[in-house]
Amino acid sequence: MTDRYAVIGNPISHSKSPLIHAAFARQTHQAMQYDALLSPLDGFQAITRHFQEHGGKGLNVTVPFKLEAHQLATRLTDRAANAQAVNTLKFEQEEILGDNTDGAGLVRDIECNLGVPLINKRILLMGAGGAARGVILPILLQQPLLLTITNRTPEKARALKQQFSPHGDLMASDYGMLRDRQFDIIINATSASLNDALPELFPGLFERTMLVYDMMYGSELTRFLRYAQQHGAPRLADGLGMLVEQAAESFFVWRGIRPETQPVIAMLKSSN
Ligand code: ATR
Hints:
Elements: E1 3-9, H1 17-28, E2 32-38, H2 44-53, E3 56-61, H3 66-72, E4 75-76, H4 78-83, E5 88-91, E6 96-99, H5 102-113, E7 122-126, H6 130-140, E8 146-150, H7 154-164, E9 170-173, E10 185-188, E11 211-214, H8 223-230, E12 236-237, H9 240-255, H10 262-271
Parallel strand pairs: 1-2, 1-3, 4-6, 7-8, 7-10, 8-9, 10-11, 11-12
Antiparallel strand pairs: 3-5, 5-6
2'-monophosphoadenosine-5'-diphosphate binds at residues 127-132, 151-153, 156, 190-192, 197, 199.
């Protein structure tokens, strides 16, 4: 029987994961099937168990089930435990391994695809929700000079600072307090682009950056990246590369093979 994988979420029809994993499977000659599973909001556990019992080897988990997947896993990788969220499940004999490949995907995209090493950089991470939490440890492992977390609700940024400060130099800040600071890399991990609102970031901050990165992506520049561009950001990137890199990392967790990501990123860009 062909090994089965899928992405599970709600909604799911927009997901590019089936396309990405089909491309990886072709490229690496892996006999596997990868589908999209729409789960009712209260049906995640039941659908997952059913999938596992019918030959499922692994799942990518997306909104809104990453927390439930974290609870369902019987063993967690360090990065998933720290993220308190799981985007990759691997079904083993007795166990369900929960991993989180989002942060590794972001780091690989910035360092390998965009050629910007994080070591010794001053990094600003905007947002303190699930998306931000998932990338903090992988960023800190690259030894930036300082990682500043800023959030509309500052207490949440402070809580993340407390949780992760054993792993590196971290600071929590309000948006208003960033005026006179300088950053090499600014990463948007808020969901602001989704509702077309913008975090209140001092526009002068963008001019002095090397890279402004939005973890969101779309067929056009996100609203946040357009704003950064209008205010002098010399280099912009959206989260399409991160999407492909986190998928490649999941593929590696499941199959032990690291697919080439560049052709898949290029394919997605040209189909946009
Ligand atoms: P996700 O899993 O995508 O991170 P989340 O956990 O709901 O979703 O977190 C959303 C993040 O985007 C939060 O940091 C949120 O800020 P608050 O903690 O203050 O709510 C941030 N966010 C959403 N809309 C925003 C906006 N218009 N301006 C600034 N921050 C915003």
